[in-house]
Design goal:
2 helices; single chain; three-stranded antiparallel sheet; 164 residues; 9 strands; alpha+beta
Length: 164
């Protein structure tokens, strides 16, 4: 009798456990995942809704006076709309990671004045695209002093990647 009772308890717990897993999966099946990681190579467009972005080139541009490397990533950004578009929000959307530490775009005017450290410095007017216009930008980001060649990636925030 004791053996049968233990088996019934184990069986009941197993059924409750399986039912709980089934309900969790069933409730979450329609919800999108928080992150989608997709690898896109150089010279391939990624559709970001109103705009499409293509990485044309990447390099260490130079080392600053504090010995931090400055990465330069050349992007081609295309307005997918039939009306003009302000892409000044692009600095909040693109992050360059080096050794899993993020760096924001440094050569965009955020209202604090110009920065003489960079060859290309983009004002709010430079970040306006005409209807269906494609424009090339070179965005600069500071990297760690010990640059790792293999742990660098570009992260696009709040976009659903679709190759064009």
């Amino acid at each position: 009798m004791n053996k049968k009772r233990k088996i019934r308890i184990i069986l009941a717990l197993l059924i409750i456990f399986l039912f709980t897993i089934f309900m969790i999966v069933r409730r979450n099946i329609g919800f999108p995942q928080k992150e989608k990681i997709e690898e896109i190579g150089l010279n391939e467009y990624i559709d970001c809704g109103q705009i499409s972005i293509k990485v044309m080139d990447k390099k260490i541009e130079r080392i600053d006076s504090s010995e931090f490397p400055i990465g330069a990533v050349t992007f081609k950004i295309k307005n997918n709309q039939s009306r003009p578009l302000d892409i000044s929000y692009i600095s909040d959307m693109i992050l360059l990671y080096s050794d899993f530490s993020g760096s924001i775009i440094q050569n965009i005017d955020r209202g604090f004045g110009g920065n003489d450290d960079f060859e290309n410095f983009y004002s709010k007017e430079d970040l306006k695209l005409k209807a269906n216009q494609e424009k090339e930008f070179v965005f600069n980001c500071y990297l760690f002093k010990e640059v790792n060649k293999y742990k660098n990636f570009i992260y696009l925030e709040n976009v659903e990647p679709n190759k064009v």
